[in-house]
Each structure stands twice: as structure tokens, then as C-alpha cells.
Amino acid sequence: MTALPEIPHLHPYEQLTPSRHRLITYSLLACVFLAMLDGTVIGTALPRIVEQVGGDDSWYVWLVTAYLLTSSVSVPVYGRFSDLYGRRRLLVGGLGIFLLGSAVCGLAGSMELLIAARAVQGLGAGALLTLGMALVRDLHPPSRTEGLIRMQTALSVLMVLGMVGGPVLGGVLADHAGWRWAFWLNLPVGLAVVAVLVRALPEHRPTAAAPGRLDTAGILLLAAGLSLTLTGLSLKGHAPGGHVVPWTDPAVLTCLLGGLALLALLVPVERRASVPVLPLRLFRDRTYSALLAAGFFFQVAVLPIGIFLPLYFQYIRGHTATVSGLLLLPLLIGMTLGNRTTAALILRTGRTKPVLLTGAGLITAGTAAFFALTATTSPALTSLWLLAAGLGTGPAMGGLTIATQNCVPQADMGTATAGSALTKQIGGAFGLACTQPLLNHQTAPTATALGTTVAWTGTLAGLLALAALLLTRNVTLPGKRTVAQPAGKASERA
Prior knowledge:
mainly alpha
């Protein structure tokens, strides 16, 4: 009789059966994977899409940018709203938008409609990426050490598969089944996930609803500012016909200055908002701000490797695309091992800073080694450099997210997760904008040009990530000293 009054006070996720807990977890991981995969899946299919739908090379950038823009801009909105109103309905709604965009992409008969559908798809993908990861953290908190380690490992594998598997899958489908299947395949997976989330995932709202009006002005300014900034970076990173677009190009400069001006105007608006979409109080925490900056620079450092090393293997060494992908395996293995090791060390010691600093040092050293890249560098040596860079990138994939989520109050966890994801996306766009001109100054890519591009970008960004991490405090995970007792039950659930 005494136990009955306590049941309503249990967190709804604590009352899930182990089988339902696993089913929901797999569905959330599928959400994250779909969002990551669709960011890269059309890369290798772009020539076939333009050939069949119409248009020219100038359309390439917008097919990619439309998805990047809406998925990035919606991330902080989804994250903040999930902290205020709960995550389940927002995730299901975002998944519905994503599937609608996927269906229209598969049916599109004009380039204009396809680009618009990609934008709709990205609008839903922002929910999949942010809320999927936040809910994984809700179901596997740091107090359940083994379960969270497994989840961080799974997320890192999905990131790697999305980054590498997307272009491969897009190419295979374009050659053998038709590029439209790159979008239609989302439908059965997405509908199955919707069914699971609706039937199995409990609705959990914050204990106290935040008073105040919806921050409409803040949402509009944030969306417009991020859109213009990312558009400017995308235009800068796009090199039509091999021609470098300068930073002073009117379109690039107008977008960047306009975007930064709107983001600056956002600051006083958020200070006055009763329920701001972007809580400025979080940025007063030096650790939170420094972790976001570190994530940005980590992404800048690693991006050139994934873009320019395949060019080196194919155009300089003469390997096929398949062999080129296999030669990148040390990077992917390093990412997976680095992320799993990072999660294990952080969750078992409760110390975040030493592991993250080690990661920044490894990626700096691993990318700096490419200064020595030549047309005759042995595959064993490039594999060693790639492994070091991958091991250094691992902490940025999971460790930074764990530290960011735990340096803010639990009520702001969704916002923190969104901030971490957004700064990494912006870092990727900025890295591409900076590295493309370095390479395009060459009439033809050479081993030296590719190596120095990777090395300069990675070394400078790695050192900046290291400097940002030195400004952080050592984030302590909640309940670290009481992990031993519930770990067994948590591992059974995971």
C-alpha cells in the first residue's frame, strides 16, 4: 500500500519495460541516422538528377544548401521548444514534415520543386537530429553508464555511416534503381518509427510550464540571421567551373553582413523576451560557450580530410572510388574507437576536460602530418595519419555533447544539444568556404596542394579547439559516485 503513491512520481521513462525501452531507443537512432544520411545521400547522384530533371551546375549548390539551411535553422528552435513543451510531439511532427518532403522529392518533376521539397525535408530533419539525440540522452542518462556508452558508440557509427554511406548509397541507387529511391526509402523506415513513437514513447512535459508569450521576434530573427549566414558560406564554398568566389563577392558579402547584423539585433530582443528562444544566460557560462566554440573548430579541422583525401586517392594515386573509400577506413575506425573510448572514460571517471584536450591534440597532430603528403607517400603512413585524426575527432562526436549537456541545467538540455549540433554544422559550412579557395588556386589538384590544404586547416582549427577547451572547467557528471549500483539494471535495459 505504501508503494502506490510513489508510482506517479516516477519519471515516465523509468516505467518502461526493457523491451519497450530498446524498441524506442532503436527508433530514435533511426531518426538520427535518417537526418544524417539525407544530408549526404544526393552528393553522388547530383549529375544524374540534373540530367533528368533539368538545370545546370549552378543548381548543385542549392540542392545541398536548401537542406543544410532549413535543418540548421530549425535545430535551435526545436531544441528550445522541446525544453519548454516536451519532445515527443515535436519529434513526431518533425518526422512527418521530413517524410512529406521526402515524398515530394521523389515525385518532383522540376528543379524548383525538388529544391523546395529539400527545404521542407531539412525543416523536419532538424527535429530528427536534435530531439532524437536529446531523447537518447533522456533514456540513457549518465547515471546509467553502460547504456550511455553503448548509445554514444551507436551514434558515432551512425555519423560515420551517414557521412560515408550516404554518397555510396546515392551512387548505387542512381546507377541501378533511380535517384528517386534515395528519398522514397525514407518512407517505410520513417512510418515505422512514427508508429513506434506514437504507441510506445510516453509523453513527458516539463514539470512547470514557462510563463510568457511565444518569442516570435526572436524566432524570426534567428532563422533569418542563420539562413543568410549559411547562404553566404555556401556561396563562398561553391566554386562553379573551378572559379574561386571571393569573400568580397556582392552576393556573399551581402548575405554574411546581413546575417551577422540580424544575429546582433537578436541579442537585445532576447534580453527582453519573457521566454527567449535563445537563452542568453547560457552563454554567460564560460564553459558552455567554450564547448560550442570547440565543436565549431573540431568540425572545421576534420571536414577537409573527408573532402580532399578521396581526391588524392583517386586523382593522384589512380585508385577507384571503391578503393578510395576503403583507404579512408582508418579515419572511420579512429572516429568510432575515439568516440567509444571518450564516452567510457568520461562516464567512468566523471572528468571531461582531459579527454577532450587529448582529442584536440590528436587531431592537430594527425592533420599537421599531411604537410608531408606527396604523390608517393605509402598507404601505411597515410593510414596512420588518418587513424590519429579519427581518434582525435572521436571526442568531438560524443564527448563534447556529453559535456555540453551536463554543463547546463536539466531544463535546458534540449537547447544545449541543439547548440552543439548547430555550431558543428556552421563549422562544416565555414570550413568548406575556407578550404575551397585554397585548392582552387591550383590549375589541377596536386598531392602537395591537397596535403597542405588539409594540414593548414586542420592544424589551425585544432589549435583553436585546444585553446577553447583550455577555457572550460572540468564538467562533473551528476550521480557519478553512485553509478555502480544501478549500472547492472541499466545495462540490462540498454
